Amino acid sequence: MAYPGYGGGFGSFGGQIPGMQMGQPVPGVGPNMLPGGYPVYPVHSDTCSSADASMWTYFTAVAGQDGEVDAEELQRCLTQSGISGTYAPFSLETCRIMIAMLDRDFTGKMGFNEFRELWAALNAWKQNFVAVDQDCSGTVEHHELSQAIAEMGYRLSPQTLAAIVNRYSKNGRIFFDDYVACCVKLRALTDFFRRRDYLQQGFVNFIYEDFLQGTMTI
After folding, report:
1. What local confidence, expressed as pLDDT, does residue 3 receive?
2. Three-class SS of the chain
3. Facing residues of 170 across strands?
4. Is the CB of residue 169 less than 8 Å from the CB of residue 140?
5. Residue 206: is its pLDDT beyond 60?
6. Which residues pair with 173 in a beta bridge?
7. Is there a contact between 149 and 27 (Cβ–Cβ < 8 Å)?
8. What is the pTM of this model?
9. Residue 38: which of 10, 14, 66 has the closest Cα?
10. What are all long-range contacts of 200-208, with beta carbons under 8 Å and residues at least 24 apart?
């Protein structure tokens, strides 16, 4: 099966912000996998933490009266939080697809609970990026991106990996913003596909409109 996992404690909000546990076996079919090779997602904790307090401060500083943020507000929020570290701030387009990835109520905006989930994902992806950037160049090469994708549990053919590298690389290197955009799209499209894979076997029949609605928004 080609369905991915997202790393060890991905999506869990208990205590410290989770990251990708490097060196662990790549997820496959096992006791923590659903039929079809899908991972079992940890349940989000409602326990408040200092990390939650920091996130709430960043979020409310830019959120509108409706308690949600659009792409431009999310971009300001993430830039002010410094989550990208020494890397360039996230582009507006990357912030748009971040919202699309978690926009389950189709408002085109992101509430705080969705923001918490995004924050955890960004921290996991950042740790994964740093781990595979073996020469500390601030970018990853095509073989390092392939390694990062495999570490997240994706089972992709060489042809698919090559297509992804060509899409997100600039002069043979992938910058952090493009890396995150790649991770967002992989997760969003996999979730879109999986929701329609009713038998969890890796096969889906689409109608044209459904396909467009699922892909054009990401």
Report:
1. 55
2. CCCCCCCCCCCCCCCCCCCCCCCCCCCCCCCCEECCCEECCCCCCCCCCHHHHHHHHHHHCCCCCCCCECHHHHHHHHHHHCCCCCCCCCCHHHHHHHHHHHCCCCCCCECHHHHHHHHHHHHHHHHHHHHHCCCCCCEEEHHHHHHHHHHCCCCCCHHHHHHHHHHHCECCEEEHHHHHHHHHHHHHHHHHHHHHCCCCCCCCCCCHHHHHHHHHCC
3. 173
4. no
5. yes
6. 141, 170
7. no
8. 0.78
9. 10
10. 200/34, 200/35, 200/36, 200/38, 201/35, 201/36, 202/1, 202/2, 202/3, 202/36, 202/37
Q: Which residues contact 76 (CB under 8 A, 6 or more apart)?
A: 62
N-term to C-term CA, the chain: 23
For a pLDDT cut of 90, what percent of the chain falls above it?
A: 50
Residue with tokens 């200092």: 50
Question: pLDDT tens for residues 71-110?
Answer: 999 999 999 999 998 899 999 999 999 999 999 888 899 9
Alpha-carbon distance 69 to 50, whole Å? Answer: 21
Q: What's CA 5's distance to the chain center, in Å? A: 11
Length of the chain: 218
The rounded radius of gyration (Å) of the Cα atoms in the chain is: 17
Taking the C-alpha atoms of residue 185 and residue 169, their distance in angstroms, rounded to an integer, is 15
Phi, psi of 174 (to 5 degrees): -115, 120
